[in-house]
Design a protein that fits this description.
Blueprint: H1 2-24, H2 48-54, E1 65-68, H3 73-79, E2 84-88, E3 101-105, E4 110-121, H4 124-131, H5 133-136, H6 143-153, H7 156-162, E5 165-174
């Protein structure tokens, strides 16, 4: 009986020793590299980490956000006539954009702007009253015409469900 226990103890010690040796020794991987990950040593002999550090980083785009804007609104922004872009949403949706560069685009043109300020209003009427219809739609001729143009994009119910209107004040950087 004691011989059976002796054999079990010897086998357990043998397994533990083999595991300790395997964990301490460098591992050879099928791809020719050393370590736990298969592609640490590429075929050219350089370590992947060193190669990653030497590669130049991809250039960052010249903008932080993108926003589609239809015509004639984008043309007016590019010319500097329209300085406020209105978007539905909660007060914090665009608040982080202040100071950021934004790419405004459609199929015809792209304009890079910097967001100077973001103001929030609970309704479209409050937005148009505070910002002035001539600032948000300089090509239109009245408050009613401007409200109707905005309602083509956003109904009052959609504006309320989204949390209100944001006035994004922009400055053209590159038209």
């Amino acid at each position: 009986m004691w011989s059976t226990w002796l054999i079990v103890v010897v086998l357990v010690l043998f397994i533990v020793a083999a595991l300790l040796i395997a964990l301490r020794a460098p591992r050879t991987v099928a791809g020719g590299g050393r370590g736990w990950w298969p592609n640490l040593k590429p075929r050219d002999g350089k370590h992947t980490q060193q190669r990653r550090m030497q590669q130049p980083q991809q250039p960052q785009p010249p903008y932080d956000h993108e926003l589609p804007v239809s015509e004639p609104w984008l043309k007016l922004i590019a010319s500097g006539a329209k300085r406020v872009e209105g978007r539905k949403g909660s007060s914090d949706k665009y608040a982080k954009w202040v100071g950021a560069r934004v790419k405004l685009m459609n199929r015809e043109r792209t304009v890079i702007v910097r967001v100077a300020a973001v103001r929030h209003y609970p309704t479209l009427a409050d937005y148009l009253d505070a910002e002035g219809w001539a600032n948000v739609a300089p090509h239109l001729h009245s408050y009613e015409e401007t409200a109707a143009a905005y309602r083509q994009f956003y109904s009052d119910a959609k504006i309320a469900a989204a949390g209100g209107m944001n006035a994004i004040q922009v400055e053209v950087v590159d038209a």
